[in-house]
């Protein structure tokens, strides 16, 4: 009881500082003295090459957020007792910047990433910030390294905002020191050889998330445990895992999952797992797809459905299309799901007039690259 009460008091007192925020107008820029140039497109490997600069700002329970800076990308130095290393007190985001036909840099719905990261910080007791200042800081960093955004459809600058506990303690408690930073990496098209449907294996042994857990937050601790199941799936010849939770379909790999089918009443319907169970990440691409499909007149449903529901629909010929959505690939069409020794082949229409997944991908790409004019989801930098 004493520990619980002490923990609550500490948490309450820290929250006073969590509400404070850095201001993007205070950013100090110290440019690299040895900048390097963007490698050729064929050398771009996801996450391997970092841009010249990074954003960082420190936080302490005593003083709140410090002075935000943009500095040369560098290695981090911290105590081996930093609680991020022992208790995974860390969260992150994934987003991209693009170059449009006029040479302007653009961001795609950065306000949603800012909001989601605040939610993740809250869940893991890290300090939060002002969402608008997050976006403005992001814009400043992208401006500084704008020449690192590769040009061409499918090319972009991947952006990784991260917040970690740097508190030097082996005790399990809310951190008293933290570091927020943003690093960036130029990337090429997810499908280098063109749009390719993927094969899935439905995973009934391992679980990605459970109700009451942290599946709805973007925490590093959600991703590490998925590596082994993914390796095992790859060894069997499958691209990704279809995550099940006691038979309930949740996500595919690190993407949200959609099924376009005829329901039992014979009505065309697009279905995806709801956010209400807390086992599904509220993806930015997921939300974008839901809004676009609703605008196009599709019957879109967010509700619980199971692998048995899918198999029944497949056996009755009611499956029209299946796809995943996420920042990296935007849309991944699914050609097969393997479950309990059976392969369930799925139609993969190949044009935007026939395929809902391809139509979504083409529309989202057009918005991201500024081809839809002043679309509210596409934010010009500078």
TrEMBL record:
Q: Which reaction does it catalyse?
A: L-leucine + 2-oxoglutarate = 4-methyl-2-oxopentanoate + L-glutamate; L-isoleucine + 2-oxoglutarate = (S)-3-methyl-2-oxopentanoate + L-glutamate; L-valine + 2-oxoglutarate = 3-methyl-2-oxobutanoate + L-glutamate
Q: Which UniProt keywords apply?
A: Amino-acid biosynthesis, Aminotransferase, Branched-chain amino acid biosynthesis, Pyridoxal phosphate, Transferase
The answer on whether this UniProt entry bears the keyword Amino-acid biosynthesis reads: yes
Its EC number is 2.6.1.42
Can you list the GO cellular component terms from the UniProt entry? Answer: mitochondrion
Q: Which PROSITE patterns does the record cross-reference, listed alphabetically?
A: AA_TRANSFER_CLASS_4
This protein's cofactor list reads: pyridoxal 5'-phosphate
Residues of the signal peptide: none
> PANTHER family, from UniProt?
BRANCHED-CHAIN-AMINO-ACID AMINOTRANSFERASE, SUBGROUP IIII AMINOTRANSFERASE
Q: Write down the NCBIfam families for this protein, in alphabetical order.
A: ilvE_II, PRK13357.1
Q: What is this protein called?
A: Branched-chain-amino-acid aminotransferase
This chain's source organism reads: Eutreptiella gymnastica
């Amino acid at each position: 009881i004493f520990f619980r009460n002490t923990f609550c008091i500490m948490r309450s007192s820290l929250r006073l500082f969590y509400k404070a925020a850095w201001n993007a107008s205070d950013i100090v820029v110290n440019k690299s003295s040895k900048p390097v140039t963007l490698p050729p497109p064929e050398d771009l490997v996801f996450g391997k090459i970092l841009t010249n600069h990074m954003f960082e700002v420190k936080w302490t329970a005593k003083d709140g957020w410090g002075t935000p800076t943009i500095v040369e990308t560098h290695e981090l130095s911290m105590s081996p007792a930093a609680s991020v290393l022992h208790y995974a007190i860390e969260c992150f985001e994934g987003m991209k910047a693009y170059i449009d036909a006029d040479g302007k840099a653009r961001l795609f719905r950065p306000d949603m990433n800012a909001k989601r990261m605040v939610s993740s910080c809250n869940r893991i007791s890290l300090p939060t910030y002002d969402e608008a200042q997050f976006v403005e800081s992001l814009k400043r960093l992208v401006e500084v390294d704008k020449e690192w955004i590769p040009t061409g459809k499918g090319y972009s600058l991947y952006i990784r905002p991260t917040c970690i506990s740097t508190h030097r303690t082996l005790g399990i408690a809310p951190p008293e020191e933290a570091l927020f930073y943003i690093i960036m990496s130029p990337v090429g098209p997810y499908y280098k050889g063109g749009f390719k449907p993927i094969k899935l294996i439905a995973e009934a042994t391992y679980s990605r998330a459970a109700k009451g857990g942290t599946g709805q937050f973007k925490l590093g601790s959600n991703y590490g445990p998925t590596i082994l199941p993914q390796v095992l799936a790859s060894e069997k010849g499958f691209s990704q895992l279809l995550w099940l939770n006691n038979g309930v379909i949740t996500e595919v790999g690190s993407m949200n999952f959609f099924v376009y089918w005829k329901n039992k009443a014979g009505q065309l319907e697009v279905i995806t797992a709801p956010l209400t169970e807390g086992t599904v990440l509220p993806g930015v691409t997921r939300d974008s797809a839901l809004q676009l499909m609703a605008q196009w007149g599709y019957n879109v449903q967010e509700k619980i459905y199971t692998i048995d529901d899918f198999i029944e629909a497949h056996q009755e010929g009611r499956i029209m299309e299946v796809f995943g959505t996420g920042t990296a690939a935007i849309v991944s069409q699914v050609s097969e799901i393997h479950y309990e020794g059976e392969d369930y082949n799925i139609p993969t229409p190949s044009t935007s007039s026939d395929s809902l997944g391809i139509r979504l991908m083409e529309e989202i790409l057009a918005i991201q690259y500024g081809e839809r004019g002043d679309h509210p989801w596409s934010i010009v930098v500078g």
